[in-house]
Design goal:
With 127 residues, this protein is mainly beta. The chain is built from no helices and 11 strands. It is 0% helix and 48% strand. The strands form 2 sheets. Strands 2, 4, 5, 6, 9, 10 and 11 form a 7-stranded mixed beta sheet that branches.
């Protein structure tokens, strides 16, 4: 079993940066593919970024490429999302999710591919 807790959300101006953190409990964290998703009011939950269990591959939505970076520290059981050059369109609740697949991810996953979820952290970007 894996329990996930996100932190780091807040209110920032456009162009600013934030780093989100997701801390997991459970001894098998290092064998889980991890991802960040977001959901804005009235919209579907969409994938933002993902990292394989080994940390050797990362994947990003086109809307955040070049601005966001996902990383993980298996020893600390934590995954991060560094968000730079934030835009108004980035405003959403951001969720951390885990996939206990036997295989490493080969592409950006859909929400239905993930088995464990955190409660989310709100990111609000103002002008």
């Amino acid at each position: 079993q894996v329990q996930l807790v996100e932190s780091g959300g807040g209110l920032v101006q456009a162009g600013a940066s934030l780093r989100l953190s997701c801390t997991a409990s459970g001894r098998t964290f290092s064998s889980y593919n991890m991802g960040w998703f977001r959901q804005a009011p009235g919209k579907e939950r969409e994938p933002v970024a993902a990292v394989t269990w080994s940390g050797r591959s990362t994947y990003y939505a086109d809307s955040v490429k070049g601005r966001f970076t996902i990383s993980r520290n298996n020893a600390w059981k934590t995954v991060y999302l560094q968000m730079n050059s934030l835009k108004l369109e980035d405003t959403a609740v951001y969720y951390c999710a885990a996939d206990p697949s036997l295989l490493e991810l080969r592409s950006l996953p859909m929400a239905q591919d993930m088995d464990y979820w955190g409660e989310g952290t709100l990111v609000t970007v103002s002008s």
